[in-house]
Amino acid sequence: MKNQNDTYTPILVGIPTEPVGSIPRPRELQEALLSHEQGNLTAEELEPLFDEAVSETITRFEATGSPVVSDGEQAKSSFATYTLDGLDNIAPDGMIIPFEDGHIRRLPRLTKGPFKYGVYAGSYLPRAKKFAKRPVKQAVISVSAMSLLYPEDGVPDYSREHFLSDLVKEAVADIRSCFENGAYQVQIDFTEGRLAVKLDPSKQLLQQFLDLNNQVLSHFSEKEHQRIGIHTCPGGDHDSTHSADIDYGELIPMLLTLNAGNFYMQMAGEKNPEASLKIIGDHLRPNQRIYVGVIDVVNETVESAETVRDRVLQAAEYIPIDQLGTTDDCGFSPFSDDVATSRDTAFAKIKARIQGTKLAYNELISKM
Ligand SMILES: [Zn+2]
Q1: What is the pLDDT of residues 231-289, one digit of tens each?
Q2: Cα–ligand 1 centroid distance for 40 (angstroms)
Q3: What is the per-residue DSSP string for 171-239?
Q4: What CATH number was assigned to the domain covering residues 14-366?
Q5: In angstroms, what is the span from residue 334 Cα to ligand 1's centroid?
Q6: What pTM, to 2 d.p., does this model score?
């Protein structure tokens, strides 16, 4: 069935700007999700609450002037674990990821094979497209993050090789499901790149992660690569990070060997963005667009449009304007229980990104 969204063609004037994705969930939804977890609310009873949260999120997104919107991941349990919803071969005691402020997130662990996703990200799109007038992007979790589910001591009768071969098929199907459901862009959340350098300074782990992602990307055409992007950040949870202490320059040259058309790169929160931008400029390949992070999601202060403009102008010194875009440094709430940032703050920051990007574009073309 066709609706207005399928025929919508965005007019590409100016510097493209896109969100990373997540928006804090409304309090009523948070409470309902908790009730559901405790067995006091059925999945069916959650549906109208998801509808309401997604509808309100998209209305507010469009009011910021954002040319591309997302559903704010209102129905995703987290950016990383939505794929596991409903599975019975997962235990909660997997790998631990420590954050700088001392809190941890624990990944689940695979207990038996074969491995299949419980949910594909494309399944979130029909609801979003019901409410959206603008193009909707959809995020998926990277195959490399999912690979961490496999425990070090193995799974009975299910080798790591067998798991990885099943996993790559599932990651490809996850991205396909987004295109089939009308995603404008698909963003692969690859937040473990910098963490990989922290865990293994020899960068062998990073190379393994990149190889897995390129294996998934090899299933898509050049044309589809232009609609696939990679998000990188040092983690963003409860206003804290997990790998910001690793020099960005250790990651960037290798990151840009991924065969994707777009890169959504955290930058506003960097201590020395200029050095990182220069490295991007030196390693950028044709047909790659860098969406530079101009909104610091860990800092609660709302940027002014002028601050955003200056960040864009600085990026434009190193990245050609036809390969430049802007984005937020990360999602505002990658895990559904993270309410460190308010919805009002998130949308005010997004509005500043849109306005500041416009200001920068006007200044750049006036000098051409
Ligand atoms: Zn992120």
Answers
A1: 999 987 777 888 888 999 999 999 999 999 999 999 999 999 999 999 999 999 999 99
A2: 32
A3: HHHHHHHHHHTT-S-EEEE-TTHHHHHHH-TTSHHHHHHHHHHHHHHTTS-HHHHTTEEEEE-S--BTT
A4: 3.20.20.210
A5: 7
A6: 0.94
